[in-house]
Each structure stands twice: as structure tokens, then as C-alpha cells.
Amino acid sequence: MKPHVQPTSEEVTFLPNEIIVSKTDLKGRITYANSIFSRICGYSRAELMNAPHSIIRHPDMPRCVFKLLWDQLGEEREIFAYVKNMSRNGAFYWVFAHVTPSFDNDGKVVGYHSSRRVADRRVLGEVIEPLYRDLRKIETSQATAKDGLAASFTQLMNIVKSKAASYDELIFSL
Ligand SMILES: Cc1cc2nc3c(=O)[nH]c(=O)nc-3n(C[C@H](O)[C@H](O)[C@H](O)COP(=O)(O)O)c2cc1C
User: Span 20-173: which CATH code?
Assistant: First the structure.
């Protein structure tokens, strides 16, 4: 069950030498959370276990970023992304996430793994926050959520194309 949490303007920060780690099954249900993750999001490790990763989803996050994440994971590719998350009490925290498939000995994808560091303030302020605001605006301006997602995903891809050879290249140029 996903708790209903109202977002607030309080920010939670963590240290540059801390890494927030989680693992999920193939559907994005949490199978492992480190203690730093638990401390920052405010849910106990037991509460996080088997919860959908969207338990910490922040409503300011554009849906198209998660579409890109799942598309790339579906192609067995890693992805780097700036993500705004929401703690149990509604506070937010920004991360720079690396999400990658986990493989078994036969090379089969058995789940996913994410490690997150503190996000660069300059990149957030100059690029990511305005970009995500625009993408959310596009998503909510369409008649249906499906149309909104299609329109924001197209916009994101157009921005990538205009600035870099790929999404990954764009992210690392920031
Ligand atoms: C390994 C892994 C880590 C994830 N980490 C996050 C995260 O930190 N925050 C988040 O909102 N979604 C994260 N997701 C994506 C969620 O599974 C989900 O797609 C997203 O929260 C959007 O949820 P919604 O479709 O219910 O809106 C992660 C997925 C995987 C596979």
C-alpha cells in the first residue's frame, strides 16, 4: 500500500560521502534498502521491504523521466538521472541516481539496483528544476495522463536531440 503523503517545502539533506542504496525486483518492489535510505526517507527498512519504489515518488517528478528509466532498464541498460523524492513526512530530497539491472550467473536480469549521491545544486537550479517544471506542465496540460506522458516524453527527447548525442551524454555534460 502506498501511503498518502502531502508534499511540504521542507528539504532533507545528506552528506556528500553518503550513498542511498536500494534494490528492487523486476516490478520495482523494494528488496533491499540501506540504513541511509531508511534514515532519509523516514520509513523503517522493514516498512520499505516489498513496498513499490514509488512509495517515495514526489508529485513534482515528471512521469516521462520514469518512462525513460523503465525503457532503458527494459533494454538492459543503466541510467543516470536527477530525481526529487519525498520522505514520509512530505519533505523532499534531491538525488543523482544511477540505476542498473542486476544479472544472475546466466546473464538474466533478476532485479534492479540504485545508488544515489547528493545532486549538484548548480545543475538542479540552472537546468533540472526548470526542465522538470516544464515537463510537468506539459503532462498536466493534456486531456489524459497518457497524452500528457506522450507529449512530455517527446519534449524531453527533443531537448536531448538539440543538445547532445544521447540522454546519457546530456546528463554528463551538465
Ligand atoms: C532500482 C529502482 C530504483 C528506483 N528509485 C526510485 C526513486 O528513488 N524514486 C522514485 O520516485 N521512483 C523510483 N523508481 C521508479 C519507480 O519504480 C516508479 O516507476 C516511479 O516512482 C513512478 O511511479 P508511478 O508510475 O506510480 O508514478 C525506481 C525504480 C527502480 C527499478
Answer: 3.30.450.20
